[in-house]
Amino acid sequence: MMAIHSEAQTNKVYDKVEVMPEYTGGMEALLEYMMNNVKYPEKAQKQKIEGRVIVSFIVEKDGSISEVHSLKAVHPLLEQEAIRVVNNMPKWIPGKVKGKPVRVSFALPVIFKLK
Question: pTM for this structure?
Fold first, then answer.
């Protein structure tokens, strides 16, 4: 019975942990990744659609990204692009509890603004 319980513990998803997950290279590198990889959907540009998409995901124990979905989206075109970019992110430095890597849920705003 104990093994089942500890397995459930190991797959628990945390919101806040002692050491939060971090994009490799820090916030600056994350912003750079987003700027270099987000492609403003042409249709959205033509329709002058702007706004913010909040993307939720889990940083796994190995730093990989899973369970990507949007919490809030202004438009499906922007939502699809934000999810695509987050799904393609390189591995993060995982979050930790008591020195051990754990699964941590994370939310990231992706802002689409026309020049």
Answer: 0.87
